[in-house]
Design a protein that fits this description.
Blueprint lengths: L1 E2 L3 H7 L4 E6 L3 E8 L2 E5 L8 H4 L6 H4 L5 E12 L13 H4 L5 E13 L2 E2 L5 H19 L22 H13 L4 E6 L21 E4 L15 E7 L8 E10 L4 E8 L5 H10 L3 E2 L11 E2 L8 E2 L9
Parallel strand pairs: 1-9, 12-14
Antiparallel strand pairs: 2-8, 3-4, 3-5, 5-6, 6-7, 8-9, 10-11, 10-15, 11-12, 13-15
GO molecular function: ATP binding; DNA ligase (ATP) activity; metal ion binding
Catalytic activity: ATP + (deoxyribonucleotide)n-3'-hydroxyl + 5'-phospho-(deoxyribonucleotide)m = (deoxyribonucleotide)n+m + AMP + diphosphate
Keywords: ATP-binding, Cell cycle, Cell division, DNA damage, DNA recombination, DNA repair, DNA replication, Ligase, Metal-binding, Nucleotide-binding
């Protein structure tokens, strides 16, 4: 999908109205089912690790009764059972997932591109919504507790009514951001198999749809900003193996009088900058040793770094 940086641009690209669908911040997975055989592929067409998807074979037939063969596009997320909200991206790994005991792995299906030997690639999005209306009600009534829901269309009680006013779209974007979701995917309601330029049909590798995220809107003005310091670092992988290339960032909490981790920073540095940081940053190698984690640091054990700063008060911003 094409990045959409303003509501005005969305209305211009979809003058006839649009459907808005939740954009989940999970791991993209394409599901292939042929009889009782299931295969799962990542965005790069590599097989997905079994611990993330193996259990879905027990639930997909219930979510799609009568489906002997199908290809589904979806996102895999870890969902907190208490809040019903997605947990952060990257928590599906074996070790990181262990830190979230009361959570389930869920498959959010956002497209069906092949069903019972029929390709749906040339079907318009508007027809897809009609098909969803047919299957969605029984799906939510009969398998609402299963970890294979359809992704929500237009959010409001799963009402697939299109947006035709800029104010309605603005309200929906605000709701999505407030809920902590990644964003929306917008699809033109007038798309047909004869007019791909309208933006509603799906073509692999093409950007006919629009994606809205808070860091896109108004040149990033809706994105949150924070002043953080470097608390630690991790070894990189591949060409960056053996050097610090991932940095643990955090801030000071006056209530607990400890420094708290906030995020990892692993992109945006060229080779020259990384080479300079190896000597400019004052770091102590601890190799993820729990006994060497300083008392001033509040950190989950799954984020123990390879290096730690001696004194965060004089660390780099």
């Amino acid at each position: 999908a094409e990045a959409c940086k303003s509501i005005e641009y969305a209305m211009k690209k979809c003058p006839n109205g649009m459907y808005a669908e939740i954009k989940y911040d999970g791991e993209r997975v394409q599901v292939h089912k042929n009889g009782d055989h299931f295969s799962y592929f990542s965005r790069s067409l590599k097989p997905v690790l079994p611990h993330k998807v193996a259990h879905f074979k027990d639930f997909i037939p219930q979510a799609f009764p009568g489906g002997q063969s199908m290809i589904l596009d979806s996102e895999v997320l870890l969902i907190d059972n208490k809040t019903g909200k997605p947990l952060p991206f990257g928590t599906l790994g074996v070790h990181k997932k262990a830190a979230f005991q009361d959570a389930n792995v869920c498959l959010f299906v956002f497209d069906c591109i092949y069903f019972n030997d029929i390709s749906l690639m040339d079907r318009s999005w508007s027809l897809d919504v009609q098909q969803r209306e047919h299957v969605q009600d029984p799906l939510w009534k009969t398998v609402v507790k299963l970890p294979v829901p359809l992704s929500a269309v237009a959010l409001a009680n799963y009402d697939p009514s299109p947006f035709q006013k800029a104010s309605d779209l603005a309200d929906m974007i605000t709701r999505v951001i407030r809920e902590g979701l990644e964003g929306l995917v917008l699809k033109d309601i007038k798309a047909s198999s004869h007019s791909l330029r309208t933006g509603g049909n799906y073509e692999p590798g093409k950007r006919h749809w629009l994606k809205v995220k808070k860091d896109y809107l108004n040149e990033g003005a809706m994105a949150d900003t924070a002043d953080l310091v470097v608390l630690g670092a991790f070894y990189g992988q591949g060409s960056k193996g053996g050097m610090m290339s991932i940095f643990l960032m955090g801030c000071y909490d006056p209530k607990s009088e400890k420094w708290c981790t906030v995020t990892k920073c692993s992109g945006g540095h060229d080779d020259a900058t990384l080479a300079r940081l190896q000597t400019e940053l004052d770091m102590v190698k601890i190799s993820k040793d729990p006994s060497k984690i300083p008392r001033w640091l509040k950190i989950n054990k799954i984020y123990y770094p390879d290096f730690i700063v001696p004194d965060p008060k004089v660390s780099a911003l």
